[in-house]
Amino acid sequence: MRGKVGRLWAVLMACLIGGAFALVAYAGHARDARRMAMADAMTGSHMLRVSDLMIRRELTTAVALTPCRLSDGAVSTCYAFQTTSMPSHAAGPWCPRSAYEPGGYFVDDVRHLRNPAGRDEEKQVTVAWLREIDQRLGWSIVNPDGSVNITNDTELAMVADQEVGRWGYGEAASYGIVNHCVQAQPIPRTLTILIPSVPRAAAEPVDIVAAGLPGTGIALDGVLYFPPEPVGRITTYHNVAPLDATGGHTGFAYDYHYHRAREVPGVPNLRTRVYGFMFDGYPIYGATEPDGSAVRDLDRCQGHVTARLGYHYHASNAFPYLTTCLNGAVATGMSRVG
Ligand SMILES: [Zn+2]
Ligand SMILES: [Zn+2]
After folding, report:
1. Ligand (nearest to CA of 314)
2. How far is the centre of ligand 2, averaged over its atoms, from the C-alpha of 161 (Å)?
3. Which ligand is nearest to the CA of 253?
4. 46 CA to middle of ligand 2, Å?
5. Domain coordinates of the chain in residue numbers?
6. In 3-state terms, what secondary structure has residue 31?
7. pLDDT band at residue 35 under the 50/70/90 scheme
8. How far, in Å, from the CA of 94 to the mean position of ligand 1?
9. Is pLDDT at 141 greater than 60 in this prediction?
10. Distance from the CA of 185 to the center of ligand 1, in angstroms?
11. Exposed e or buried b per residue across 25-41, where buried means at least 16 C-beta atoms within 10 angstroms of its C-beta
12. Phi-psi map region of 40: left, alpha, beta (phi>0 left; psi -120 to 50 alpha)
């Protein structure tokens, strides 16, 4: 009897160990297949040249090829250029000063703003909507006389301190900025952008903050793309930070940037339907494929491989709207601007 149990136990263990090896082998194979597909994706007919698609009049230098080092240590060649990240279209509006002014847009979400509709919705920021938030959550962005608390340019720096320093609400109520609509006028920046000319898959998705990138990518009009706006961090202080109709606003470094990939003058490129390039060099498209067909099977960075386009990213019409991580190696040496 003991012998039988022993044999059964041995068979069971053999199955478990064999299964574990099979799982590891499968995961390794899947990872290799993905990396090979991504590598293959950027050869031959898939190759798009950054220098052909960026709108040169929006950049402060021409796009030139230069030697660069990538985040995986490889020496490569990058497209290099400078941009101010200022839009060629009008920026704003963001915060309404009165009931007679329309504002920008903010995500009225279930998690942080307890949207009673039970789903995340992008809402226009009007005095009426701010009052609705007040009734729902007890905030006081709108004063009893109908005026709205709106940050000035100095107060934006205070909002940056409390958000980056992860202060609590009480601390910010004493020393910071609470119950405000956050906005500031953007200032032209001098940003040197480096984009790998031959994108290559990274072993792991790139940590955007650790890599010191100025954003996640760049639209063809020279404006930075950022990851989705941190609604939870902003609303911790009973603040809202609206985007304009093109999905842009001013960051803590007074840089204008997009949290959405929207159609703006010159974007997307009419021939290719490309909106911009993420900083690993892979292109980003809108919420559909260039031929209008539905997008399928996106990975967690909102990218995938198709036969026609190779590896590429997509924007979406719901959260997270834009790529949250990058699957390819990025160039080192770009500076982050908040
Ligand atoms: Zn932002
Ligand atoms: Zn696609």
Report:
1. 2
2. 38
3. 1
4. 12
5. 38-89+188-230+244-328
6. helix
7. low
8. 12
9. yes
10. 13
11. eeeeeeeeebeeebbeb
12. alpha
pLDDT tens sequence across 176-185: 999 999 999 9
- Ligand sitting nearest the alpha carbon of 288: 2
Q: Name the nearest CA neighbour of 189 among 290, 84, 281, 308.
A: 84
Left if phi > 0, otherwise alpha if psi is -120 to 50, otherwise beta: which for 37?
alpha
Other beta carbons within 10 Å of 228 = 15
- Of all ligands present, the nearest one to the C-alpha of 295 is 2
Looking at the CA of 250, name the nearest ligand.
1
Which residues pair with residue 70 across a beta bridge? 331
Q: Cα(299)–Cα(307) distance, rounded to whole angstroms? A: 16
pLDDT tier for residue 212 given thresholds of 50, 70 and 90: confident
Q: What is the dihedral of CA 54, 57, 58, 61, to 10 degrees?
A: 80
- Quote the pTM value: 0.86
* Strand, helix or coil for residue 282: coil
| CB distance 51 to 170 below 8 Å | no
